[in-house]
Amino acid sequence: MYFAHTVLWPGKPPAAYRRILASLVPDEGEFQIPPEIFHYGPDGKPLQGLSPFRFSSKSGDGDQTQLVLSAIGPQAVAMLRRETWKITHLLSESKGHPLADRTHTGYCELRVAPRPETFLVNHMIAERHQRERGASSDPEVIRRKILAGLEAQCALLGRPLPEGVEEAIYDIRPSEKTFATPIAGGMVGVGPHEIEMDAALEIKGPWHVGSLAARGFGRILQPRRAQDRKVAA
Fold first, then answer.
1. Distance, CA of 86 to CA of 98 (rounded, Å)
2. One domain for residues 96 and 204
3. What letter does residue 94 receive in the DSSP assignment?
4. From residue 78, how far is each of 88, 107, 187 by CA, in Å?
5. Helix (H) or strand (E) holding 152
6. Which of 68, 87, 106 is the last residue in one of the domains?
7. Domain membership of residue 57 as a residue range
8. Lower Cβ count inside 10 Å, N or C end of the chain?
């Protein structure tokens, strides 16, 4: 199961939804938000492992942006449900007027399909370095990262990676164009700008692979959306 909370933000998308929301949370009072949502512990130190919370932003109707915070798995879903009203309030206060919001509940599904389709993996962080440099373009290295990410999200959902998924991924084609993003501690995350993945899979709901999934990196786009992205490019 996953649960998504969306706030309609006026204007262009902010640079980093996660960082903006974290900056609005007070140190005390009724509008505090559990640090686990930002992948930090009560002691202020980063948590280890894959975060069940995912921040992202995308274009909405007109000049609005959709700020989306998703929770993966039953425990994370229960936590986020309790906090949505606070999130909407804090963002509304920052803009000086009430912002509209909505919620959605769905299921994350992953299974082997009878025929392959082309998926697109968007901005997957494949490596971490002390300084910016190019990412590995070895398809097998990237394939292992993708499989590890799928297995980790299955664990959040309380189930194993379905049998046959590894064999169902036929071809990996990373773009020559790469990107880099800063990480805490002076590290830099790097990876292909896009990855085409031919796989006989059926994927439903939000799935992320690679590092920094909490910031929205490494989203697997469905075949139709992947084709729309390629046409637009």
1. 12
2. no
3. H
4. 17, 14, 33
5. helix 139-156
6. 106
7. 2-106
8. C
User: For residue 98, what is the domain's CATH number?
Assistant: 3.30.70
Q: What is the pTM of this model?
A: 0.85
Report the distance separating Cα 198 and Cα 107, nearest Å: 23
Buried (b) or exposed (e) across 142-158, using 16+ Cβ within 10 A?
A: bbebbeebbbebbebbe
Q: Among 160, 157, 163, which residue's Cα sits nearest to residue 204?
A: 157
Q: Which residue from 113, 163, 174, 172 is spatially nearest to 143, judged by alpha carbons? A: 172
Q: What is the pLDDT along the chain (233 residues), one digit of tens a residue?
A: 999 999 999 987 776 899 999 999 999 999 999 999 999 999 988 888 889 999 998 877 778 899 999 999 999 999 999 999 999 999 999 999 999 999 999 999 999 999 999 999 999 998 877 665 655 678 898 999 999 999 999 999 999 999 999 999 999 999 989 888 888 777 888 889 999 999 999 999 999 999 888 888 999 998 865 555 554 44
Cα gap 26→90, rounded to integer Å? 9
Q: Rounded to 5 degrees, what are φ and ψ at 39?
A: 65, 40
My answer on whether 93 and 147 are in the same domain is no
The count of domains in the chain is: 2
Q: Where among 65, 85, 106 does a domain terminate?
A: 106
The identity of residue 146, as a single letter, is: I
Integer Cα distance of 33 and 36 in angstroms: 9
- Between CA 181 and CA 137 the distance in angstroms is 17
